[in-house]
């Protein structure tokens, strides 16, 4: 079997067009411009790239972008003060604090200081609780992007066996909740799971989010299964150059799977597209307007 490649880059472009249409409508019919504030603390090179990309795509969609770059030694009180200011700014509908934060800052405290209604990352404890109980929430961008790709490829996910490898708060756990919400039978596997290969072999859907380069080989995959690779790992390639790989061994998995997301060009671009979608959703909710269909879970 040769797997269908699920093209996240192309799908993300479609979502961004959809977002831009909704932004234009908000402006024409209501005089509202959705605004996204992104806060970066420190100089992590990958984070700088992602934040730049977020700002550029926000502006391209017709929204207002507010970038706040703080030095690595920023103290907690200063960061919390900025978040408070953004919480109270009516021009800002979405707030995102880029992760990881420098080690001296308490990530949970910072995340939970964002107004849940503006928490376009969906990481605030209120949004986690709402998602877990099947209520309307802000949904974390990476799992939302994975869900959209799965729905587009499969149609209904009802009754499918899904294995999520990884139990992080930002991907594994919310991904499992979303799959459960679509009536999958869900297993969350992790480093202590007994006989991981056998568990993965039962799955119709495998979501790999462990952060270990090429950990999942093709002989763990059930023939015809759909493989969603969340990993973005930079490894040493040929001639001293680095290259990006996912958490699954692409070649061997693609030879067995029915469908697979590539790295790069799979889940990554969907993350930022879903961030823009969440910002429009947050803006519509803030103004009591109906939410755009198809942009959230
Ligand atoms: N507050 C948040 N912090 C972080 C999140 C998040 O959702 N919210 N996710 C990641 C980083 N991330 C967005 O912030 C992100 C990662 C990767 C991509 C992406 O498009 N990747 C490309 C490859 C890019 C490259 O060449 O390095 C791809 O996969 O095709 C977008 C966003 C951690 N922090």
Automatic annotation (TrEMBL):
Residues given in the record as NADP(+) binding sites: 166-168, 232
Domain of life, per lineage: Bacteria
Tetrahydrofolate dehydrogenase/cyclohydrolase catalytic domain: residues covered: 6-121
Pathway where this protein functions: One-carbon metabolism; tetrahydrofolate interconversion
PROSITE patterns: THF_DHG_CYH_2
Presence of keyword Signal: no
GO molecular function, one term: methylenetetrahydrofolate dehydrogenase (NADP+) activity
Protein name as it appears in the record: Bifunctional protein FolD
Organism name: Poseidonocella pacifica
Gene: folD
């Amino acid at each position: 079997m040769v797997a269908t490649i699920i093209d996240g880059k192309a799908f993300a472009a479609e979502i961004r067009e959809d977002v831009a249409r909704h932004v234009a409508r908000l402006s024409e019919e209501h005089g509202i411009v959705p605004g996204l504030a992104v806060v970066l603390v420190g100089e992590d090179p990958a984070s700088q790239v992602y934040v730049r990309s977020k700002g550029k795509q926000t502006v391209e969609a017709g929204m207002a972008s507010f970038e706040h770059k703080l030095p690595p030694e920023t103290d907690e009180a200063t960061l919390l003060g900025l978040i408070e200011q953004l919480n109270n700014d009516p021009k800002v509908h979405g707030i995102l604090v880029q992760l990881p934060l420098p080690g001296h800052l308490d990530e949970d405290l910072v995340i939970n200081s964002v107004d849940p209604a503006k928490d376009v990352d969906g990481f605030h404890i209120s949004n986690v609780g709402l998602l877990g109980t099947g209520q309307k929430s802000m949904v974390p961008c990476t799992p939302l992007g994975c869900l959209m790709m799965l729905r587009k490829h499969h149609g209904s996910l009802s009754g499918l066996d899904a294995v999520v490898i990884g139990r992080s708060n930002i991907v594994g756990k919310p991904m499992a909740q979303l799959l459960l919400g679509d009536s999958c039978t869900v297993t969350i596997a992790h480093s202590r799971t007994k006989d991981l290969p056998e568990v993965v072999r039962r799955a119709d859907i495998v979501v790999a989010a462990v952060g270990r380069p090429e950990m999942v080989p093709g002989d763990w995959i059930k023939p015809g299964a759909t493989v969603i690779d969340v990993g973005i790992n930079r490894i040493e390639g040929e001639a001293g150059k680095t290259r990006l790989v996912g958490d699954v061994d692409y070649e061997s998995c693609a030879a067995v799977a029915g469908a697979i997301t590539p790295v790069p060009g799979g889940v990554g671009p969907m993350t930022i597209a879903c961030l823009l979608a969440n910002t429009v959703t947050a803006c519509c909710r803030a103004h009591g307007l109906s939410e755009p269909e198809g942009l959230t879970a």
